[in-house]
Amino acid sequence: MANRRLTDRQRRQIEQNAKKRRENSLLGEGEDLEGIIIARFSKAAIVMDEDHEVHRCHLRPNLAHLVAGDRVLWQKNEQGAVVSTQLERQSEIKRPDVRGQLKAVAANVDLIIIVIAPEPEPFGNLIDRYLVAAHLEGIDTVIALNKSDLVPANPASRELINRYEAIGYPIIETGPDDESTKALSDLLGKQTAVFVGQSGVGKSSMINRLIPDQDLRVGALSESVLKGKHTTTTTEVFRRPEGGLIIDSPGIREFGLQHVAVEDVAPGFKDFQAFIDRCKYRDCRHLVEQGCAVLSALEHGAISQERYESFVNIVNDIGEKSH
Ligand SMILES: Nc1nc2c(ncn2[C@@H]2O[C@H](COP(=O)(O)OP(=O)(O)OP(=O)(O)O)[C@@H](O)[C@H]2O)c(=O)[nH]1
Ligand SMILES: [Mg+2]
Ligand SMILES: [Zn+2]
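# guanosine-5'-triphosphate complex -> structure
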């Protein structure tokens, strides 16, 4: 879990801030206040203050890269409110944008909830991509199988999540019932968690259930294609009454990992970890090499065919896109 204590840099910033506040109050300008970005628009942001009140703020031009979850300093003035300073990030979730440029999409996240559901059909490869990215950032993950009411009719989704549980990844099953919502709530505790996954798996619905008085927009699955419509369009932060923050993010169909080095993929596969140090060559790519312990684990069934193929898919994808 990310360290939530103030870093030295943040502490210095707050001290400087107090000094500036005294100076500002002499000048009659707004004092520095702390807040969290809960939603980002092109030239503005919604900031939640320490009393959980929200304010629409302008952004200083040098702060164009602020994202949901960022901690900031902001001031009120006659024209409204303005964010002036970004405080240091403890962690960030990054994703390539449409032009392939790596962009942070959320900051200061302790936990990533990777949501899947019986429908739309889940793909192990997308789960694996999230797991690799989270491992690199050092952020904990939980795989959530949502729409538990539909699982009996789609047992394949439970088989999929059980395979991840067998590897040692934390999982949870959630649905419309109160018990599973309570279990999810207990698991989240006071952490900051981001919900990610395909469109239509029920991320916003899960957040609605956790925060019943928060009227999030929830989309209806289009009956004909059973492919989730994109309902959530911006990444947004919600405060849980129990403490802790939840970040809702727009559903995605693909998750490019071009920003990841090929050699960082295997360490993100928990089931490979026992083997990667036993390969004959230190720079083994685990593809065709002689004396590769991963390939021999695959042969003996200690690594599943699905996971190995998923690994090769990610490695090939990175290789192609970086040329
Ligand atoms: N049967 C069933 N349907 C659910 C459950 N949770 C959500 N849904 C339905 O799934 C559909 C999609 O839910 P959303 O919460 O909008 O999904 P999302 O993951 O936020 O989608 P995007 O915002 O597009 O990424 C809606 O019709 C929900 O009513 C559940 O536990 N059981
Ligand atoms: Mg949504
Ligand atoms: Zn190897």
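# post-check
The chain has three domains: 8-86, 111-248, 262-321.
The helical segments are 8-27, 124-137, 155-167, 178-188, 203-210, 273-276, 293-299, 305-321.
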